[in-house]
Amino acid sequence: MNINDAIRTRIQQLCNEKGWFINELIRRSNVHQPTVSEFMRGKTKSPSIITITKISKGFEMTLSEFFNDEIFLNLEEVEN
Known about the structure:
mainly alpha, 5 helices, about 0% strand, globular
């Protein structure tokens, strides 16, 4: 799994835990809907750190808490 897949999976995991659809996360994180939707569908590459920070805040967690999950262990190397 690469980092983008891991971020997508983590976002979906957290939404499922909270019983949210992606639109609720978008509303709470104040990130533009196309930014999140296109990333979640794999249409865009890596989200910016600012976007991930806003998403973390939407989940009422820090960036460290967002990335503190087993899914981020043993990721594949990122190719340029």
